[in-house]
């Protein structure tokens, strides 16, 4: 009965996964990041073989058939990354996955693309306290993201979108649009 009246406080991981403010310097999260980094060291030292695909299937939340991730690849946890079928990530991509990152079937991502689900409070005192948060990022099917593009926390990219190289995507992109620039602006709509 006492537990019903006073439920256990959520863990830092539970808060992170709900998009709430959380302490990243937490023993459970530290252990998961260390495990992820060990897997990435193995992954980034293998060729594009069956071993590499097997490692990606262990590391990521889901990894669709025919998908490919070239080295070097970096992420925080791995389990929050979900790639559909036939997804391609070129060299040196970084996905900060404190919240889910979904990449749809057939999407092609150029070199040095960065996708951030990790965020930080805007208030300096809260930020100095070590609290962080995140917002999920979703990329639709059959998108093409040019090299060096950055997708910020909370962004949703519709199906069949083209994002120009070097663009910084700060807000949602509707299906079929072509965007470019910093911040990315719609150049062409479906």
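^ structure tokens above, recovered residues below v
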């Amino acid at each position: 009965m006492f537990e019903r009246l006073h439920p256990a406080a959520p863990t830092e991981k539970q808060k992170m996964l709900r998009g709430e403010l959380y302490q990243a310097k937490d023993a459970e999260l530290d252990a998961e990041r260390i495990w992820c980094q060990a897997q990435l060291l193995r992954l980034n030292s293998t060729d594009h073989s069956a071993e590499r695909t097997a490692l990606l299937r262990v590391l990521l939340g889901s990894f669709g058939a025919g998908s490919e991730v070239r080295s070097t690849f970096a992420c925080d946890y791995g389990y929050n990354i979900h790639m559909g079928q036939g997804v391609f990530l070129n060299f040196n991509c970084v996905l900060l996955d404190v919240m889910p990152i979904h990449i749809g079937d057939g999407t092609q991502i150029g070199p040095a693309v960065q996708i951030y689900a990790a965020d930080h409070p805007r208030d300096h005192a809260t930020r100095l306290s070590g609290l962080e948060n995140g917002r999920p990022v979703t990329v639709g099917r059959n998108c093409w993201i040019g090299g060096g593009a950055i997708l910020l926390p909370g962004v949703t990219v519709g199906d069949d979108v083209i994002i120009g190289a070097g663009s910084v995507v700060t807000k949602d992109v509707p299906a079929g649009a072509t965007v470019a620039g910093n911040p990315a602006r719609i150049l062409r709509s479906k």
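Helices lie at 2-5, 12-17, 27-43, 50-59, 124-128.
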